[in-house]
């Protein structure tokens, strides 16, 4: 595909299943090269995913997902060789944001104005990296306070979880029901065309 991009996914154990599986497969379908990495793991290792859903409780439940095999090694990636970055949600962002190299990678992509897509709890990493000041960001409602404390403006998802928000190089969304809008907007930043 002309204009195919090289995209880096930062993931960890208990990444939300749909939020890694679906965008990874959709971006491959469009024709992009996608590399998935996790701190402390190498190509061929896997992360365990979690499926989050609403079953009538006050918050989402968590069920076992799949083994998602990584296809690149975190320690050997060269961030400057990638055109874009994806930060899926789930529980992984909560601890991935404690890794200074993860934060440095996010800052590098942002400083270079490369497209960054973050969904659900993924913006916890954006907040920790300090790249949200003065920017609007959609995310899972429980992450609202991270966005606010980082100097960003929370994009309210109360009207529905199926919308995404783009500001500059940043595309964010509240949860996996937003995949069609989130991936469409991210693809536009990548220069990819998706038929309506």
| Poorly predicted tracts of residues | none
CATH superfamily assignment? Class I glutamine amidotransferase (GATase) domain
Quick one: how many beta strands? 11
Instruction: Give me the Rg, rounded.
Output: 15 Å
Overall number of domains: 1
- Mean pLDDT over the residues: 95
Could you walk me through the main structural features you see in this protein, from its secondary elements to its overall organization?
The protein is an alpha/beta fold and 196 residues long. The chain has a single domain, classed as Rossmann fold (3-Layer(aba) Sandwich). Helix content is 29%, strand content 26%. It is built from six helices and eleven strands. The protein has a six-stranded mixed beta sheet with strand order 3-1-6-7-11-10, sandwiched between helices. It has a three-stranded mixed beta sheet with strand order 2-4-5, with helices on one face. β10 and β11 form a beta hairpin. α3 crosses α4. The protein is globular and about 40 Å long. The model has no long low-confidence stretch (mean pLDDT 95).
């Amino acid at each position: 595909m002309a204009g195919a991009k090289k995209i880096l996914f930062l993931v960890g154990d208990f990444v939300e299943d749909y939020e890694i599986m679906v965008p990874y497969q959709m971006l491959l379908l469009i024709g992009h090269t996608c590399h998935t990495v996790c701190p402390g793991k190498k190509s061929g290792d896997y992360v365990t995913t979690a499926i989050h859903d609403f079953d009538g409780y006050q918050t989402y439940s968590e069920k076992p997902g799949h083994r998602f095999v990584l296809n690149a090694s975190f320690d050997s990636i060269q961030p400057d060789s990638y055109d874009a970055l994806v930060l899926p949600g789930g529980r992984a962002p909560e601890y991935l944001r404690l890794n200074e190299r993860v934060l440095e990678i996010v800052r590098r992509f942002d400083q270079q104005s490369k497209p960054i897509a973050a969904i659900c709890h993924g913006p916890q990493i954006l907040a920790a990296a300090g790249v949200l000041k003065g920017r609007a960001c959609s995310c899972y409602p429980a992450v609202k306070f991270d966005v606010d404390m980082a100097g960003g403006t929370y994009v309210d998802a109360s009207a529905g979880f199926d919308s995404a928000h783009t500001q500059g190089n940043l595309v964010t969304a509240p949860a996996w029901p937003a995949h069609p809008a989130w991936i469409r907007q991210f693809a536009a930043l990548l220069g990819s065309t998706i038929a309506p």
